[in-house]
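haha ok so turns out i had the wrong file open the whole time. this is the CORRECT one, sorry everyone. sequence first:
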Amino acid sequence: MKIPSLFTTFISYFLLSSSHPLALSTNLNYQNIKPGWSLYVHDSQNLLVSPSGSFSCGFYPVGLNAFSFSIWFSIDNKTIAWTANRDRPVNGKGSRVSLRHDGCLVLSDYDGTVVWSSDTQPTQKINQAQLLDNGNLVVTDLSGNIVWQSFDHPTDTLLPGQRITKDNQLVSSVAKGVLSSGYNKFYFDSNNILQLIYESPNMTSIYWPDPFKIWWDNNRTAYNSSRIGVLDEMGYFVGSDNLRFNASDFGDNVMRRLTLDHDGILRLYSLNNLTKTWSISWVALSQPCEVHGICGQYGLCMYQPLRCVCPLGFEILDPNDWRKGCKPTFNVTCNSAHQVRFIQRTHTDFWGFDFSYTAKLSYDACKKICLHDCSCQAFGYKKGSGECYPKVSLMNGKFSQNTMQTIYWKVPRSFKVPKVSPREKNLHDCHVSDVQFMNYTSMEQRKKNGKLKWVYLYSFACSVFLVEALFIFVGWWFMWREKKVEPGEQSYEAAPCCFRRFSYKELERATKKFRDELGRGGSGIVYKGVVGEETERLVVAVKKLHGVSGGDEEFFAELSIIGRINHMNLVRMRGFCSEGTAHRLLVYEFVENSSLDKALFSSQMNSSQGAYSLGWSRRCKIAVGVAKGLAYLHHDCLEWVIHCDVKPENILLDDEFEPKIADFGLVKLLNRSSCGRELSRIQGTRGYIAPEWASNLPITGKADVYSFGVVLLEILSGVRISDWVLDSKEEAEMVFRRSMSIIKDKYLHSKQGSWIDEFIDVRLNGDFNRSQALIMLNVALCCVEEERNRRPHMADVVRMLQSCDCDAEMLNQ
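then structure:
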């Protein structure tokens, strides 16, 4: 009788474990969770593990009888990569995470209270929840589509392949080893810029990139509104705002994580496979005291070792939490300005909270402003420049020898300054790495005896300084004579990108006083020139811009966008000149075979430089190349650019007849708020303008698609669109529309393609591939659709053109 009993028990156990395998304490790891299954907190060894075993997911202990549902690296010391309930830990008994049949992952506490939910859109076709090898926890349907993923909801860490977008952010932990949310965030702001910000109930303060600079001075761009940033597996991060950095150990086969640490600093870490330890391979801020809010109100951040201190006359509020700052041991009243005085703190600054700013002000005048304003707690003053910063609140304090500012603190006249030096007080560690120490003194500490012995040393130093200043001034004067630059542009002496800045005299010499004209258009005149030394002479095309508006900052911001664009089918910018609004020039690479219009519409048919030289294979090559260049501008480069003036005159041909698009980005430089009306005045451009220009509709990349379609028709026919008009009384647009309707009708209803022979350029003498011509004509017809929503994107145009192989060896008809 024992055998049937044991057999029954075994079968019961097997059936139970088959129906609910995760409900048992079997100490097993699983690769997926099916609908209706659960992971229980008391079975902490039952984990969801990625196929390679690199990541694990389950309940992670965060305190006494407190657990979080997290994802961590399996091969190190369980470094957390993601947490569902970082601010609401669950009980160590009875808590569980379940995958419901509607596709929702739910974390429940011991009493059934829902602590966290994935809020997945309900669906009846859920397959499983699975942890992928990249650390992404996903819920998929029966078709394998992801209906929810942890990558969309990061906590303080980004993994390779995970995106930061306008809909999510990184939030630091509150302290080292604690998962709860802190006050520092890494996110896209409303200007499309990725930044670090300190955000507490009392204050909000941006500290990276440099808040003193405008975004273009920080090498960022606000023109791309996609707001996407991603770290790849090689260790390279790229953001839509042009934030770019890479790991110092750049390469594959390295586990990485980008983490916003508890101290408010964004760091990229790489895992050593031998020691299983993390090392920093990139860091956003090398000076921790630049992080705002690190020492709280009135607190000062100091170096070596990295510490937070309370200034003399202040005491710490909470020794366990420096972010709460310090409190004064005195009380300042507003009864009388004569009852207060000021204590000096050299090399000290409290960033922000200035209720006014005045330059070139005397010390006494600055002091008077703060003295007679009850809300003024202190004022910062820079000797020499006379900059005055009265402060209504004192946050983000730091001490550094590099800080050329002195803080003057308002205290009661009866207040006695403690004789204890800040370095002798009880300083509390900030829990961040040590860096170089900077000296720190107060006014009373600087008043010492024995000043007379320094008189001779100071006198000698002043003499040396005066002699050096004289040499510097003379050298500067000679340089100024050689190369005048507007005073407001001194900060732009270095080019904003990888190209060179030229003076106007240099380009005047390079072009022999602008003698050799290559062409002209609505945006300016182009001249041929030669730059460089005798051993490295470089032929360039110099464009003198006309009608440039806007200030220097705007001009350089647009240049920083154009200069970073690099594609084989786009003319490369070599440099620029900006000396006031009167002399603004762009220096481009010189392209050998001039522009497409001269090669395509040349009256010298038999010339090697005329249309005859544009055989069928070359025309195909030009069409594909131009499409690739526009597709790059529209889809692939970070700074989304609409050309607005695609025409044969702006398509240059090199010695291999590879096309290169010119004048991209000039719409921004010329500040054409009414771009359509201005372009209509440029000779030879009216026929290329999309219909939406006249309708005052928002201009998108589809306007370039239309222009490209017109250019493609001209490449096929060898005739300008404007020359299609036979009757001078007819409008060119009406003739074009009627011609397109006829051609489209023939394309759709003609069973034989012999009619295409009448449309293709007669100068080819029938030496072309008919099937390729039909495909290209179909692409052109799609591009010139009057309704822009019916036009393809340039990326689709490239794919359609590449589907017809344009190699010369295929010309067999």
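The mean pLDDT is 79.
again sry for the mixup
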